[in-house]
Model the fold of this input.
Amino acid sequence: MKKIYTFATIALLALSASAQGRQTEVTKIQKPFKAVESITPLTTHATVSTQAVDFSSISDMAGDYDWSYYGLLNNDRGNKTAIVEIKVTNPLRGTISISGIVPAGSGMTTPITATVNLAAGTVTLPNKQDLGQDAAGDHNYFYIKSVTDDGDIVEGAYAGESITGIIDGTTIIFPDEYVFAVGDFENEGLGWWKLTAFNEFTPYVEPSGDIDLSEWTEIATATMFDGWVIPGLKYNDGTYAEAEDFPLQVKIARNNEDEKLILVENPYVQSISGFPMGGGQTGYIVIDVTEPDFVVVTPGVYSGFTNGANKVVCINVEGFWAAQGYTSAVIKQALADDVPEWSTITEDGEGNTVINIPTCRFNYLTAQDKMYTWTDRAEAMKATITFKDPTSGVNNVLAEESDSLTPAEYFNLQGQRIENPAKGQFIIKRQGNTVIKMIAK
Done:
């Protein structure tokens, strides 16, 4: 048998890709904010008249932060996140520096500076900060641009010396009517390295992606043809592995509170011959089957597979965009030309439940604003999960009963009768023609 020994190079699924660097194409900001039939959402923040500051001292502000913003350039458009670092440079004067706003690859490493007033709960950001020359020899600044009520970005730099954001708890929020810019305010025809609206910073918390198994009940063992990891594997002769060569056996569980949520347990802890994931860790895939013709693989759950130092999260196209607040109807309309087939849950001729996911993608716990495919393998990233759902069989049998006066009977999810259900157990109750799933009390 050919041995699998390497992974294909990762490629970012760029929905609007271009090389990073100065960009001149600018997206208009919609104000007031309206619902848009688009897959590049706009966000805003409620006005905060008073706010609590949860930093006991300026020194407590040091650390990594999630920077969330709305990108206005062609190569950085839509809701985005990045990790920046705040350092306290002078706790007595309240000065801090922010590293990470200036893009990597620009040739500039100068951090942005700001001044904090904890008593007032404010952060003041000076305008027109000199960043020096970039890799092309052009001069650059971090500066502020203003926005009209119609959402147009005003040419040149904001006239004021600074802008002031507020500290709400531990989140730093800058006013919506100002835009962060990295470029040359005296020569904007060159474009910008960065242009962002709705800027806020929240202390970074390492996501765990863990699952509490006490909230789930195992219902079956499934055969899974994996569309997330196996398509990225190559044999030693350079050919790619195919999912059908490695039928994986996985346990399936159902959420105790929401029967439309299905859990795949430990998909990458396998010991079958030739499968290279024997060192995989505990992990899960969560699937929402609320809409049978639009199945969602839920983001934010660690799969148990690690790519280098990155913890991989299994998602699908539907799940990525649904997590950003879009309905299935909007997603289908927006991506109709790009997605020929959507994920579904059906029943085959033998009574098996089949979850078909032709839109497999992945991202990382630390980069959930992105979608990834393996290089040149997007078309191969398709998964199927087939299992016998015991609740379906039980329901079919129970549906034949017609005597509504029959005393209540109880079954576990495997269809086995239970005389005395334990408190908190997820069970099926039959009483005549009425069948319900419930938690025993």
About this structure: Residues 308 and 357 are 25 Å apart (CA to CA). The longest helix spans residues 390-398. Residues 391-439 form one domain. The first strand starts at residue 4 and ends at 7.
